[in-house]
Amino acid sequence: MADDYVSNLTARFQGIAKAITEDKQAKVYMEVPRESLLKAVEILKNEFDGYHISTITVLDSGERFELLYHMPIGPRLLSLRVFLPKGDPTVDTLTGILPGAILYERELHDIMGIQVKNHPDMRRLLLPDSWGDKGYPLRKDWADPRKKEVK
Amino acid sequence: MFEKVVKWSRYKSPWVVHFNSGSCNGCDIEIIAALMPRFDAERFGVLLKGTPRHGDVLLVTGPVSEQMKDRLIKIYEQMPEPKFVVAFGECGCSGAVYTGAYNVEGGVDKVIPVNAYIPGCPPKPEAILDGIVKLLTAFKESE
Amino acid sequence: MAKVTIPIGPQHPALKEPERFMVTVEGETIVDADVRIGHTHRGLEKLFEQRTYLQNIHITERICGICSFTHSTNFCQATEYILGAELPRRGLYLRTLMNELERLHSHLLWLGVAGHEMGFDTLLMWSWDDRERVLDLFEDLTGNRVTHAYNTIGGVRRDITDAQVQRVLHTMDILEERTKAYIQVGLNEQTILKRTQGVGILTTADAKRLCAVGPRLRASNVKYDVRKNHPYAAYGELPFDVITSDTLDVHGQLVVRALEILETVKMCRYMMQNLPPGEIRVKVPRKVPPGEAISRTEAPRGEDIHYLRSNGTDKPERLKVRAPTLANILNVAHTLKGANIADIPLIVAGIDPCMGCMDRVLILDRDKETASVMTKEQLREYSIAWYEKEAHR
Question: Which of A111, A112, A125, A127 to mutate to probe the B interface, most B CBs <10 Å?
C-alpha cells in the first residue's frame, strides 16, 4: 500500500503538481505553483483526509522565497513546496480550508515579510510590537542593527 | 530601633519575587524544585511572593528578551529599597547560548543593576540554597 | 445579557502592556479570548544559521528546558537523515530511553502544576518528589539534571553500565506503583473531579480542525501519536499503546498523561531488558552535504517538528522548529470561550504550556465596562475560592 502512495498522488495531482519526490525517510515533497496551492490543499483535505497542518516553513533561497506546508497525509508526511518571486512575495491564506494554519501564516509575515492575502488576523506573532520597521530578521540580507554580536 | 527590627525580619525571611525574562524554563523549574521537600528552601524562610511591592529579592531567569525588557525594568522600579537583584542561570548572567540572537539583550545586568550571579545551566537547587545563604549573610553584614 | 462593544482606547492603563491572555466576560462567563505569545522569542532560528551543527545541538537543547531532549533528538535526526547516517541499535535505544525518561519527568511535573492550580498542594509535593527520582537518573546517566548534552550527531555520547540499568529498572518499579496511586486519586478525589470534569471540552471535530497535538488531542479521542504513526529512533520495536480518552475535557488530559506514564514505564523496562550490545554512535563528517530533511517526534506536549536545509558547510542553511505548545494555542483560546473565569487556570494548564509562566490575565468586563488585570496567583486563589463556594457543578 505504501508503494502506491506516490503513484496515487501523481495520478490525482496530474496537471496540478509540478514534481513529486520522496526521500529516504519516506517523506514526500510535492511542488505546486502558487496559483494551484488552494486547490491542492482542498483535494488533500477532501480526498486524502488531510486535516492537520504541522507547520509552514519559509526559506529565503536567494532568488526567491520557498514555502513548505507540512501535512501528515495517511502514513506519511507530505510537504507542499511553493516558490514565490522575491519581487512579489504574496500567497493565499489557507485558513478558509485549514483554520489551523492561522498562526503559522502570521509567523511567515512576521519574520520573513511574506504577504498572506485575505488573512483574517494579521498581527505580529513572535516579534515585539516595539520592533517597528527593523525589517524581517530571517531574510538573508538582514543584519542586526544593534552593536556587533559578541562571539 | 525600628530599622533594626526591619533588617532582622528581612534577614530571617527574604521575600523573593521571581521573574522569567524569556528563559527556556530550565532554571524556573529548578527554582520550584528548591522549594519542594527534597531541598526545602522554605526552611531558610524564603518565600516566593508575587508582588514586587513587598519583595526584597528579585530573582531573574532568562537572557531578557526584547518583549520582557520593559516589564523587567518596571518590576524593578516597583520594588522598595533596599532591594537585591539575583541573576539566576547562565542566561541571566551573560546570555549564555543565546548570545548574539537578535531578540535578546544578553544578560540581566544589561537592563538593571545586579547584586549576585548564580551560574549554571541550570544551577542545581543546591546552588540556589548556597546563593540564599550567601545573600542572607550579606543582609546581616550590610550594617 | 446585552452584548456591548466598549471602546477601550490606547490610553487605558490596563492596555499599556500587551497581556498574554485577554478575556472578555459577561458576568462570570468568558465570551471571547485572545492569546498572545512571543515573550520567549529569542531569535533562535537566525542564530542556528550562524552556529555549527555541534553548537546547535546545545542551542536546540535549550529551546525548552522541559522538553529539551526531544528538540536535540529532532535536530540530530534531521542532520543524520541528510548525512545518511545509520545509527547502531544500542545508540537508538539509549536515545529513546532518554526521550521516555523526559516524558516521565514532564508528565509528573504537569501533575504537580495541575494540583497546585487546584489548591491541591499535596499532589504537587508528592509528584515533584517522584520527579526527583527521574532527575536522579538523568544525573546518573548524563551528568546533569535538566539539560544533558547526551545527544550527538550520529548517536549518543555516553554508554550505560549494568548497574545503571538496574537503577533505571528499580526507579520504574517505584514510579509505576506511585502512578497507580495517582490514578486512583485522579479518578476519585472530589476536588480534582469538580475542577476538571466537563471543563475545557474540545470536541474531536474541533481538535482536528484546530490542529491540536499531544495529550490534548488524544483526550479529544483522536488516536494519533508520532511514536506510533511515524516511528522514529527505536519506537518501531517497542511494545506500547496509544492512550486516548473520550471525555474530551481537562480530566481526560489528566487520565491520558497518567496512563502514558505507565506506558513509558513499560517501554523503559523493555529497553533495559532488551538493550542491544554494540556501539552507541557512528562518526559523521563535520560538513553536511546540501540537502533537506524533516524530523518529527512526540514530545511530552505533542508533535514537535524540525525542518533542516543544509548547504555543504558546517552550518545549517535553515533550521525551522515548531514546538508543540504553539500548535495548542488555538484550541486553548477556543475552549476558554464559554468557560468560567475560575476555569482559566486549569484550561490553560491542561495543554501543559511550555511558554514561560502565564503571569497575568487581562479581563474585560463588557457589562461593567471595566478592564482589570489579575495576576496568576490572584487568579489561582480566585478559582479555588469560587469552586469552594460552588455546592455542585
Answer: A127
